[in-house]
Amino acid sequence: MNLQRKRVQSDSNLKLYISKARIRQRVKLIAREINKDYKGRIPIFIGVLNGSFIFISDLVRELKVDTEIDFLKLSSYGDSKISSGEVKLLKDLNCTIEGRDIIVVEDIVDSGLSIKYIRDLILSHNPATLEFAALLFKKGLSKLDFDIKYIGFKVPNKFLVGYGLDYAQKYRNLKEICILKN
Ligand code: PRP
Fold first, then answer.
1. What would the pLDDT profile of 40-92 be if each residue is shown by its tens digit?
2. Which residues, 6 or more positions from 29, have their beta carbon under 8 angstroms from its beta carbon?
3. Tens digit of each residue's pLDDT (9 = 90 or more) over 79-124
4. What are residue 150's DSSP bridge partners?
């Protein structure tokens, strides 16, 4: 038994939800779609810190197309389980968006508040195209009036941690995605 699995099994607050093998397989499939869709182009991947740092690094390493990478940092949850309802921009982009193909990479779309904020922000800089890749997408979210083109898994309304997702900054380094009980 590896140490990681031991950590999940011995922490009574964690219940394994998506194994690292399933995540790896899904990330590869998303990369394959992106390779096909962006053939001959050089998209800019914009990771939303902190949660997306593992997903974006695994995703871009599966790509065959040339890429550029930049990061945004937002915060709406702080150390809480509930969104404050207000998105704050903590780190802006350094790249030029105008005329470029942009793919925003999120770990999770939960209430949709962050992704809507990011969409407005990026559209205000006139990209050529804008798409979204989210590893996790909460089922039942009906408030989005645009598509998330690349979705890893549609997930129920449980509090999830691991593979970049935290609770009070903990659990981000789990290789699998777990439900945080209690
Ligand atoms: C989390 C997550 C997404 C956002 C999704 O970020 O990484 O960016 O919330 O939630 P929403 O759809 O309800 O807006 P958080 O503010 O917790 O910061 P973090 O990425 O540093 O954990």
1. 999 999 999 999 999 999 999 999 999 999 999 987 766 666 666 788 899 99
2. none
3. 666 666 788 899 999 899 999 999 999 999 998 999 999 999 999 9
4. 133
Extract the tokens encoding 13: 């607050």
Q: Clarify whether 110 is annotated catalytic.
A: yes
Would you list the domain boundaries of the chain?
3-31+41-180
CATH class, 3-31+41-180 region = alpha beta
Q: Measuring CA to CA, how many Å separate 94 from each of 69, 73, 74, 116?
A: 10, 12, 15, 20
Which atom in ligand 1 lies closest to the alpha carbon of residue 49? 20
Backbone angles phi, psi at 83, to 5 degrees: -60, 140
Which burial class, exposed, middle or buried, applies to 163 when counting CB atoms under 10 A from its CB (0-12, 13-18, 19+)? buried
78 CA from centroid of ligand 1 (Å): 9
